[in-house]
Write a structure and sequence with these properties.
Length: about 110
């Protein structure tokens, strides 16, 4: 497993749906929990067509430890349920979901 810093990205089609309060709360709760579990920082954004989530981690081991935790599983369910309630078609609307090694970053 990679010991270099990594990013985790998730990009989803909006298909003319709006981000609801429940979606926002579920995502912020998830991302706050990720910070408690070793995430260095995150971005939750949208444009006219997509929802974009981006997290950075010191290494993939820390990320994978979080991804295998009960905290992750519970928060992930809340996100999925809030997106489904808002009319998103998961997993079909997911455009991109990946972990990547950071080669260079400017902070």
């Amino acid at each position: 497993m990679n010991t270099s810093p990594v990013i985790r990205m998730w990009v989803t089609n909006k298909n003319n749906s709006e981000i609801t309060t429940e979606m926002n709360n579920a995502m912020v709760d998830f991302l706050s929990t990720s910070m408690e579990n070793g995430c260095n920082d995150f971005t939750f954004a949208e444009d006219a067509d997509r929802v974009i989530v981006y997290t950075t981690w010191s290494d993939e081991k820390i990320l994978e430890k979080f991804r295998s935790s009960e905290d992750y599983k519970n928060r992930e369910k809340e996100i999925i349920n809030s997106f489904l309630a808002a009319g998103f078609q998961l997993p079909d609307d997911i455009l991109f979901n990946s972990t990547a090694k950071i080669l260079h970053a400017y902070t």
